[in-house]
């Protein structure tokens, strides 16, 4: 006879099988872990999405600040030309060149450039504020994700050790993680 025909079962195997039929702790833990992993994936996606929004607005703020800087430089150049034209109008006779008209033209252009630079500065500040607002939930979502991961780890340990109190700890960490993820939006 071959060895495959004979099954020798020990008392431990019988006890484990009997316990599995009467106490489906492993199934509960597996389902609990799957739910936590799903919640973790959602929280991770939301945190990444908020982080991307913050980076987009920060990039917009930098772009607007660069445009403002360009306009301020043009404004300063026009203002310098205006000042030189006004000085030339005082020093040089009007018959040679109409420096007063040049000064007025430079003043008009400078005024428009200053308004544009100030508008870009405002838009930069608004985009920077929006970036900070978008990033605010990210930290709480990252902490919430950490609590969910600890909950999953405790659930796994409770499956290995059959300690129900560890499953309670996993539930506590999971509840804190879910609460933090909800609080991130308020």
From TrEMBL:
Record bears the keyword Transmembrane: yes
Membrane-spanning segments: 29-48, 141-159, 165-185
Alphabetized InterPro entries for the sequence: DUF4337
Start-end of Basic and acidic residues biased regions: 7-20
Keyword Glycoprotein: no
Pfam families: DUF4337 (PF14235)
Keywords: Membrane, Transmembrane, Transmembrane helix
Region annotated Disordered, chain positions: 1-20
Protein name stated in the entry: Membrane protein
Organism annotation: Sphingomonas taxi
Organismal lineage: Bacteria, Pseudomonadati, Pseudomonadota, Alphaproteobacteria, Sphingomonadales
